[in-house]
Each structure stands twice: as C-alpha cells, then as structure tokens.
Amino acid sequence: MKPTKRIINRIAVTFLLLLVVGFPAAAQDQPLQIKYWLAMSQPNSHLFEVTIEVNLPNDLGLKSLDFQMPKWSPGRYAVFDFAKNVQEVKAREACPAGLDCTTPSSLVTRVDDQTWRVELESKRPGMSLMFSYKVFANDLSGTFSQLDARHANFNGGCIFMYVVKHKQDPVALSINAPKGWRIVNGRSEKGDQSEFQFPNWDVLVDTPTEIGPDWTDDEFKVDGKTYHVVVHSLGKEGGKRPLLVRDLEKIVRAETAMWGPPEFDSYTFLFHFANDGKSSDGMEHLTSTQIIMPGALADKDAPEETLDAAAHEFFHLWNVKRLRPLELGPWDFTRPANTRGLWIAEGITNYYGHLMQRRAGLWNDAKLFGELAEQIQEVENSPGSKLMSAEESSLAAPFIDDAPHAQQTNLANTTVNYYPKGEALGVVLDLLLRGRTKGATSLDDVMRRMYEEFYLKSPNATYYLRGRGYTAEDFEKTVATVAGSDLSDFFKRYVRGVETPPYEEAFAQVGLRFVRTARAPVTLGITGDENEAVNFKIASLRPDSPAAAAGLQVGDVITTFGENRFTAKNFSKVLARYKPGERVLVSFLRGTRPMSTTITLGGPQLFDFRIEEDANASAEAKALRAAWLTGQYRGGAQASSPASTRGACVPNGRHHLTSRAAITFAAVAPPPTAPAIVGASGFATSPTANTFATLVSCWEPTIT
Ligand SMILES: [Zn+2]
Ligand SMILES: [Zn+2]
Fold first, then answer.
1. Domain range 526-605, CATH class
2. Which of 236, 525, 533, 645 could connect to 542 by a Cys-Cys bridge, CB 3.0–4.6 Å?
3. Residues of the chain whose pLDDT is less than 50?
C-alpha cells in the first residue's frame, strides 16, 4: 500500500476547518484524545482484544464517561446489536510511564444493552483511562468481522465502541498483529504500517482492515490515482488474478469517465475469495471496498461475478459515500437509520454498476439488456411492488437488508426491494431524460450535478464529511432542473406511488422494444418445496392468487390436484393441461389433517421480460442508444464541469456540435470559470474561451 501523504494532510486540513467552523455537536464537549489499541493474541478464540485509551484533560468536569457499541453499521441497514458479542469489559487508570505503580480497576457499569459507563469522580486529573473489552468475531463479511488462524478481517462498526458525545473527536488506532501478519486498509501509506490516524470515529469504522500473512497487492494507476487490488485467496486462483486486475482497471476508467477523477490519491479493492460456499458480501467505503466471494478465484464464473460486485461498490464512492441522503452520516447508532433515498443510493448504483460493465467493454448489449430485464422482472413479478413504493422500501431497509427474523413474516408479499426497484426506476428515468431532451441530458448529468451541488460545493453541514446530505425533494428538484421540465408526475406515480413505470416508452427512446410474455397461461399462485419429492408442499403463496382465494396456505401438502398427483418438479407440466377459469378439486394435508378445496384457476400472473432491438428504430433513437451504452464524454473535459451548464441547455440545434466536431478542454475548472480550450477540430472557426459557455451549454454527449 503506497498512497501519498496527501490523504493524511487532507484529513488534518478538514479537521482544522471543522474546528474553525465549529459545529454545534462538537461545541458542547471538549475534544478528548482517544486511541484504540487492537490486539489478537489468540486467533483461534475469535476474540479481538480492544483497549480504548482516553486522555482526560486536567480541568475536565466529567463525572463519568459512556462507551457505546453501535446497534448497526453504515451500508447495511438491519439492526444487529453488535454489543451481543462483547465480553470482559474493564477499565483502569494507565500507569504513567517509568513509574512503578499499581493501577486499580475503575468501576464499570453496564447501563443498557449497548452502553457501559465508567465513573471518573475519584480519578486523578490528567490521567489516562484504559477501557478494555473483548469482542467475538467469526464472520467474513462486509459488516461483521473475523479472527481465526488464517487472518483477521475487521469492519470497525462491530469491533470499536465510540465514546458517547465524542464520536466527532479525532482518533488513533494501533494494531498489534501476530508475527508475520501484515496490515492493509484503504488508508495504509506503507507496507508495514500498524498506526493510523482518523479525523473521527465514523471514518475509523469506514476503514475495513485485513491482517494476514498471505494476501497479495497488485496496483494500477488511472488519472494519477493509485488503485490497489488486495486479494486474500482462501482457495485456488487458477492464474486469474492478472485478468481480474486488468478488468478492474476498465471499470475504474469507465466510471471515472462519467464522474471525473475522484478526490483521493489512492483506493483499495479488498477482495476475499472465501472458498466456503457461503460467505458473500460487498460493502462500500470512502477510499476502499470490501468484497467477499463465496468461491475460489479459480472457479468458472468467479472473475465475472467479482467484477459485477466491484462495478457496483466502486460507483458508491460517489453515490452514497460522498453524495448521500441527508440521513446517511453522521449517524445515530442507538436506532436504525431512516431515509427515503436508498432507491437512489443503492438502486441507481445497481443500475450504473450494470451499465458501467457495458461501457467498460466487459459486457455486450445483450448481456446488459438481459440483466436489466431480470431486475425489472424481479420487481414486476413481486406482489409487494403493488403495495410498497420505492421511498417506502427505503424506509423499510432495516427489515429488508439482510435482517434476521425470529418470527414468521409476510415481507415476501408486502415489500419490494429498493435495489431492483431503484434500478428499474433509474433506467426508465435515464432513458426518458435522454429521449425528451434529444440526448442533451441524462441521468449521468443528474448524478454529476447532485455530486457537485451537495458534495463539492455545499458548506460542510456536519463534522463527518464534506458538503451536506440531500433530501428526496432535492433529488426531484435536480432532475427537473437538468431535464428543463417538470417531472413531478414521475415521482408521484412511480417513486412515491406504486404504479408500473412506463418501461415500453422508456426503452423506445433508444430504439429498443420492451417485451412482456406470460410465463404460464394458467396461474395457481404457489411455489413448491424443492426438497419434497413425493407430494407438493407449498413453499410460498401469493396473497392475490387463486390458491389463496381457495384457502390454501404455506406448509399445506397437496396430495391430489384434480385427478393428478404432482410435485414441485412436474407442477408446471400438470398445470399446463388446464385453462384459466377451470375449477379443480384439490386434496391436501394441513399437518396430519386431510382437507380439500376447489380452486378456480386464474390467468397469467408471472411474466418474463426481455429487451430487444427494434428493427424499425430511427437513426436518432439509435444514436441515443449509442450515447447511453458508451457514455461518450468527448474532448477530455472533466466530466463534472460541463455537466452543470449542460443541464440548462435548450437543444435548439444552433450551438450543437456536429458529429464531426470535437473540442478539448483543459481539465478541472468549476463553473462559471471556463477551462482553457486546448484543442478543437471540425469547426469552421476555432472556438475560443469566450464561446465556451455557449458550446458547453449545448454540448451533447453523443459527439464522436
Ligand atoms: Zn483475509
Ligand atoms: Zn450498494
């Protein structure tokens, strides 16, 4: 790991700025010097040993200090109560260096399910408090942590308590790793680094860290930024690592082409190939991502699946990590986060993760269209999509995002997932924008403008990060500004409402047909338990189905269907002999009790979707499609600069560049300052800096 020192300098400058600005939250409590010590002396015990050293100022009027384990951690919205894995909590005064002294234990009281309190009244002024505990960790994941004989991989949210009211204070971290184990994370500056500084606790836990003897680090550079590809393979690699690194670079190039070069100097892809058939995750961070694949890199589809995850997580470094909904940072870790914006933060990221693989040249058109159709299919075939809107789904994230459920729930029938729902809305919005403005604007422009306005240009609203979070209304307003027209109807019907988005109209803008075909002519509305070989055991049941209307329920075992016996395997074949409207006598067992009912069979309820080229598409629609699929940003201008002016473009054709004209700007000059023009071709007279505003305001991304 060799990022430059500028990262740390930037952190220091940011922190100074924050002190000068003086946020209300920070003003009331004098900052403390806080250092985390992390040890792992018994890897097989899966117990991390954490000590939080707090240097208390001489004049501190504090009677006690609270230490709190978060209930959840950013990026995964389910509540996991990390305090459940905490044990052996203690506190003592530090023995001043060079003195032979005893250090009596301090009184620690657990005050609720996540908080421990240390009494300070009898403490010496200026003393250091050493608050320590162990935390059990044996899950390789983007949220949990793992310590075993092979490695330590931690995500700080489930390991490090914060000091209540001092989450905003700068913190240090010192890691005592087993001999021969090397430490790496998105903020490493050199290979043998074990000491780290963070501007606040939130950034500490945003820095997943791998510690082990045998991970590898490959790197590449794009736009002068260094990208590290750290791989810990717990299975065979089959010589595929160079290909993975090569294709990651393509993804980085495609995504930075849209956003412009990121603000950091170094970024780390942290991969695990767990080879256990179950560990699977991806998590976004400010200067890194943690991606865990269940197989080995040598497995057949492993590189492709890994790149799919990476394209998504890398896009997050803009969308959600920096450009973020208002509620996503800093956080209150005593209750789950509630935001209406996850369909944007996750769903639109999901859309771009797929689109970018096409733009990077890793996918062909058919692969992208197939993936988009699959996401739309998941939404439109789910009964919950008619009950829950994209915004409500975002608010329900704590129940949806890998949440454990001890009780039976009806969530499968009542929720829609904000990942595919947001992706479906993202592609529809993108294509409608492109179509209505004849290619002058797109969702790319919306996202860049949001990033500029809320991250780059807004004054810092909190200690946590640059800029401020956006509201649902901010996003809607930006879409309207970029589109140059009112889109409130779209948001009312498809974002806050549950109407089916206008897929056909959207894909037609780029000369594609959106085709819906019935999966089966007859519907019962149930699925069978695949493990049941003799009879048909109902595994799921739609509430709006003929089976539900006839009184069947999940767990019922159907013994005869009309004259037939059937299983999950031959179910479709048997059903195909019937027609909608036919009435069928069904015998079934509910527990051991034999019962029967008559079902009136229904028409198609599940559909397959596909996206295909329209042979009669106009040249204009084909050009829009090409611009969409390739994301052409011509001329070397930094993408974010023209975006803000392009949104105001009225495409009257007068100032449009032609298909043969290109213009090259020097990179980076935030509007209204025009970047210098360093090259142009295809113009009757060479454009000058004075013509910049006119040119850029109608600059189309389709120019080649
Ligand atoms: Zn590892
Ligand atoms: Zn995501």
1. mainly beta
2. 525
3. 1-28, 633-704
